[in-house]
Records
---
Amino acid sequence: MSEGSAMGERVEPVVPGPDLVGVNVERPPLTHQQSTVWNKRQQAVCVRHAFKHYGSNKKPNHVLSNLNMTVAKGTIYGLLGASGCGKTTLLSCIVGRRRLNTGEIWVLGGKPGTKGSGVPGKRVGYMPQEIALYGEFSIKETMMYFGWIFGMESSEINERLQFLLNFLDLPSQNRLVKNLSGGQQRRVSFAVALMHDPELLILDEPTVGVDPLLRQSIWNHLVQITKDGNKTVIITTHYIEEARQAHTIGLMRSGKLLAEESPHVLLSMYGCQSLEEVFLKLSRKQVQGKENDVPVTVSQQTEQNIANNISLASLNWGKKDSISVTEESGVVGLNFHQSKEVLVHDSNGHLDKGKPSSSRSITDACDDCGSCTEWTTRGKIRALLQKNFLRMWRNVGVMLFIFALPVMQVILFCLAIGGDPKGLKLAIVNHEVPYTNQTYQHCDFFRNCSLTHMSCRYLDALNTSTMVKEYYRDPMMAKEAVRRGDAWGALYFTENFTDALVARMALGKDTDEETLDQSEIRVWLDMSNQQIGVILQRDIGLAFQAFFKEVLGACGSNVDIVDPPVSFKDPIYGNEKPYFRDFVAPGIILTVVFFLALALTSSALITERHDGLLDRAWVAGVYPWEVLFSHVLTQFVVMFGQTFLVLFAMFYVFDLECKGNMFLVFLLSMLNGLSGMCFGFVISAVCDLERNAIQLSFGQFLPHFASQWNSLASGGNALSSHQSIRVAALNYGHKCFEMHFGEGLGYYGTNCLPRIYFDCSLDLYFLEYQYVNT
Ligand SMILES: Nc1ncnc2c1ncn2[C@@H]1O[C@H](COP(=O)(O)OP(=O)(O)OP(=O)(O)O)[C@@H](O)[C@H]1O
C-alpha cells in the first residue's frame, strides 16, 4: 500500500485463508484495522516489508525477506529464532546502525536516524550481542562513560550505578572489565543498556552466561519496568522457554516472522507444551510450504502471510480477544499490542482521522529527545576524551610506544648512524722495511727534511680512528684478507717506494714508467659498502695531503701548495664540514613523527569498530564527527609530547644544530605528524582488520623511506666529489713537480714556480699546469 493510502481511511477486509494446522472451525467476523502512519507511530517499533541483504547486488545473501514486525509500547517482545536467521541484523536496523535495502522502520514514532527521532540516542538502550566494553575501564568508569554520553550528571550516574551493582550482582565497581568473567562482563553490558532508563530497551541475548537465578531476576525487572506501559523491551534469546514471560513472541526463520503472538496463544494454538515445540511445528510447516512452492511475487507472499495468520488466529476463537489484522503486518493474530490497537479503534467507534499528524509526532519526539538542536554536548566530549586518554594510560605497551619509542629511535640514530664509522681494518704490506713477528717493527722515519722511509711517514699520517692497521707479509695475503672480509682494504708499498717517490718529484714530467709504478701506493678497497668505501678513499687521500704538507713544511716550502686551488668559502647553508648526521636528522625527525602518528591512529578506530564499541557509541547518540574530533584532539596532545621529546633529544642531548627558528621546526614537525594522523584515519576507515592497516601503513612506509635513502645517496656523492680533489702541486726545494694519484709524480726541473695539475681523468677539476722558469 502506498503511503498516501496508508494515511487515508482505507480499511482492508480480511479474507480467511487456509488453516495452518488443518483445523477448521467456525470463524467470527474479523475486525478491520486501519493502516496509517499514525498507527505506525503509535507502536514502539513497526517494521514493514523489510528486505535486507549482505554482499553485492549480484550475489546477495538475503537475510531479511519481506519481514513485518509490530512491537507495541509497554510490552516485552521476545524475538526468537535459530542462529543466523537475522535477529541481530533486524535489531541493528531498528537502532539505526544498518539500513534496509527496502521497506520501512518506525521506532518510537520516528524513523531511526532522522532528525528529532531520538534514535539513535538516549531514548534507546542497546545491549549488543558482543560484550562491546572497554577492557581497560573499571565498572564505574564504564558507567561514567556511557552516563555522560547519555547526558546524565555524575551524581545521578553514581546513584544508578549502586542500584545496578546490587541488582545485577556485580563485583566491586573498581574491578577492571577485562578481569571480569564472561558472565560478569555480559551483566556490565546489560547494566550499560539499563543505565539511563530508556524508553526502548533492545537486548541481544542478555541472558547468555547468566545463572538461572539472576536470569529470573532480569526477567522480573523487565516485567516490572514495562508494567506502567512507558517502557518497551525487545529481547532475543536462545533460551526459548524463558521467553514465556514476554508479552509477545516473534518466531523468526530465514528472514521472516513465522508468527507474532503472545506465548499462551501460541501454545494453545498448536496444542504444544513448550514454545520450542511450537517453533519446530512452524518451521516444519514453512519447509513443507517451500517444497510445494511455486515462485510467488512479493504481494502474493504478503497475502499468503496474512491468510496464514488469520488461520492461526482462528484457533483462538474460544478466547474473548478480538482478532485483528493489518494489511501490512503479515504476521498478526491475537497478539497483545494488536488487541490494544483494536481497543482504541473500537472505543472510538470509527477510524480516528484527527490523530496527530506526522509533523506533530516528530515534534513530540523532538521534545522527548531534548537534543535536536544540540550539535554536541559537554558530556559526550568529556566521555570520549577521557576514554581515549584512559585507554592509552592503562595500556603499558601503548605508553611505551608513544613516548619511549621515539626517544629510543632518536638515540639509536644518533649513536649508530650519525658519525663516521670507526675501527675499519686495513691490511698493510710495506716492503720498504723487513717484516718480522707479524709486524714491521723498524719502520722508523725522521720528521725533518730527510727523505727516508717515506712509506712509514705516510702510514704515521694515516692514523685516524676510522682505521685500524694490520700488517701482512705480501700483497696476495692482504688482498685475500679483504676477500675474506677480514679487512676493508689493502695498501701496498713497494721495496723502493721512497726512492721512486723522490725520483718522481725530481723528474717531473720526465718520470719513466717504472719510477711511476714504484712510487705508487697501491690500494685495493672493498667497495661493496659505498659509505665505508668512500670514507676510506677520503681518509687515504687526506692522509697523503697531510703527509706531503709535513714533508714540505720540514723542507721549508710553502705547505699551502698542497691544497687544491679551489677555495671553498663559508657555506651559505650548513657547515664547512658537514656531518652526515646533520644531513639525515631532519628526515629522521619527520619520519618518526609521521609514522608514530600514523601507527597510533590507523588502529584506534579499527579496534573500537571491531569490538562493537563504535556501534554502541553510535546507538547511544554519538556522532561520527564527535569521535573524530576526540581522536584528533587526543592525538594532537600525544603528538605534541612526542615531537617535544624527539626535538629535545636531537637538539639538546645530541647537539644537532638548528640555525633557524626552533618554533618553526616544532610547528613543521607537528604539521607533518598531522598529515600522518590524517592518513591513519583514512587507513582505519578503509581497513576492517588491524593486520590490513599495518600492511597498508608499511606499504606507504617503504616508498617514504626509499626517498630518505635517496637523499642519503646524494649525501654520499657529495662526499665523493669532495674527496676527489686530491691533487697536490708543490715546490720542493728548487725543483718543481706536479703530482696526482694514479699517474705518479712528475718532476719539472729546478727553480720553477709552483705548478698545479689536477687529475682530470677521474674527477671534477681540470686546471692547466703552467711551467714557468725562474
Ligand atoms: N556484516 C555482515 N556481512 C555479511 N554477512 C553477514 C553480516 N552480518 C551477518 N551476516 C550474515 O547474516 C545472517 C544473519 O546474521 P545475524 O547476525 O543477523 O543472525 P542472528 O539471528 O542474530 O544469529 P545469532 O543468533 O547466532 O546471533 C548470517 O548468515 C550471517 O552470516
---
Amino acid sequence: MKIFTAAQIREADAYTISNEPISSTSLMERAAGRCAAWIEDRYTPAQPIYIFCGKGNNGGDGLVIALQLLQQGYPVTACLLEYGSRASEDYTIHFRQLHQQYPGRIREIADVTGFPELPPGAVIIDAIFGTGLNKPIEGWLAGIVHKINDVKRQHTIIAVDMPSGLMADGSSRNMPVIHAQYTLSFQFYKLAFLLPENAAFAGQVHVLPIGLHPEYITQTPARYHITDIDMMRTIYQPRQPFAHKGTYGHALLIAGSRGTMGAAVLAARACLRAGAGLLTCHVPQCGYEIMQLGEPAAMCSTDEQPDFNTHFHEQADARYKTIGIGPGLGTSAATARSFEKLLAVYKRPMVIDADALNILSVYPYLLYQLPAGSILTPHPKEFERLFGSTTNDFERLELLSRQAVRLQLYILLKGRYTAIACPDGAVYFNATGNPGMATGGSGDVLTGILTGLLAQDYSPKAAILLGVWLHGYAGDLASAELSQEAMTAGDIINFMGKAFLSCFPPEM
Ligand SMILES: NC(=O)C1=CN([C@@H]2O[C@H](COP(=O)(O)OP(=O)(O)OC[C@H]3O[C@@H](n4cnc5c(N)ncnc54)[C@H](OP(=O)(O)O)[C@@H]3O)[C@@H](O)[C@H]2O)[C@H](O)CC1
Ligand SMILES: [K+]
C-alpha cells in the first residue's frame, strides 16, 4: 500500500472531486460517515461523545460525525474551537446544518477555561487539525490539547484522520500533539504514524477507505509503502512438484563464537525453516557439537580457531547460493581480516548482521566492497554506529534511504515498523510484528530467514520483503498463543510453519 504525502493526499482529494465526480461536501460526508459508522460499531448510544472541532476540513469532518451520531441518538456535544481563523467552506455548510438541527448540542470554546467538564465514560473525538496542519499548535489551543491529553487515562480519545498537532511528513518533536488511542486515517497511512518518535500519538491506526479515485492511486508514484498480505502473495513462490534439495539452494552461515553459539543455532534453524535446501554453518571449534546437536539438519564446517571464526573466507566458494554472516560472530581483528578476504572472493548478495555490521562500522571502507544487492540488517544502535546520528526520525529515514542508494544495498532498520530501504530509493515499512519480538535472538532469527530465502533464488528485494513479513507474522502467531512476555526468539522459528500456511494456504 502506498503512503502519500499530505500534498499528494490533497491532490487525490481534488482528483476524486473532479473525476468521480463528487462534490467536496459529499466527499467529506462519505469520509466522516465512515468514522461515524466505526464509532457506532463500537459504542452504544448511551455513551456521551465530545467532538472537538477546528475550523478547517478536519473540523468539518467532526461536524458531520456529530450530525450522524446525533441522528442515531448518541448524546453528542460538539465543542467548536473559536480561534479566529476563517472556517473552510465545507465546515461552514455542516455548521449551518448542525446549528439548524441541534443548536443545543453546540458549545463554542474561545479559551482554555471553556474546556468542558467531561462525564465519566465520555469518548473524545479529536477533529481539530488533520493533514492541513502547517505549524505547531500554540497558545490556548495548545492548552486544549494538553487538557485532552491530561484525561487520556479516563477517556478514550479517537483522532479523525490524524492526531491533531502531528505533522504528516515531518518531525513534530517537542510540539503539542493529541495522544489518541485510535486514529481513523482516511484511505492511507501517514508516514508520521510509522516512526518511533511518534509512538505515543496515533495509537491503534485503522485505515478507512473513503473511495479516493483508484486512477490517482495507481498512477501516482510514492516513495514510501507499507507491506500487506496482497504484496506477499505476489512475491511468494510455491515449491515445485519435482523439486529436490538442490533446487532450493545451499546457504553458508558464518556465525558464533565462544559464549554466543546460541545466536548461530537460532540463525541456522530459522534458515532451514525458511526453506533453504541445504545449509552449512561455519563455526569455531568450540561450536562444533553445539551446532551438530542444535540443528542436526545443518552441516558444519569448523574454523582453525577454537573460540572464534578467522578462516571462513577459505570456505566461501561458488557452491553457496548466498552467505549469512554476523550472529554471535565477534569482532576480533582476525575475524575482520577474514571478512575482508571473503568480500574479495564472494560476489553474490549476502545478509550482513550483528557483529559483521559492527566490523563494517570499524572498517567503513568495507561497505564499498559488499556485493551489490546485499542486505544489511541494523537495529537503531548499529545503524548509528554505521552511518552516524540524526536529530529526528525523519532525518534518520532520509539518511537510511540515501545510504541504500549510494551503496546499492538493501538496508533494513529494525523497529515496530521495520523500514526497508532499497537501492532505487523506495522505502517499505513492514506491518507485522509486536513488542514481544524485542527479545534476544530475534535478529538472529531474521538473518536466518533472509539467508534461507536468498538461497532459494528469491531476489534480494523479494527475500527482504517476504522475510521481514514472515518473521513478524510468526512473531504475531507466537505472541497470540504464548503472550508477548513469554515468547522467545526460538518461538518465532517454531511458528514459521504456521506463518507460511496461514499467509499462503496450500490450495491457493
Ligand atoms: N483525505 C481526503 O481526501 C479528505 C480529507 N478530509 C479532511 O480534511 C482534512 C484536511 O483539511 P484542511 O482544511 O486542509 O486542514 P486542517 O483541517 O487540518 O487545518 C485547517 C487549517 O488550519 C490552519 N492551520 C494549520 N496549522 C495550524 C495551527 N497550528 N494553528 C492554527 N491554524 C492552523 C491552516 O490554515 P492557514 O490558513 O492558517 O494556513 C489549515 O489549512 C483531512 O485531515 C481530513 O480530515 C475531507 O473531509 C474529505 C476528504
Ligand atoms: K484530528
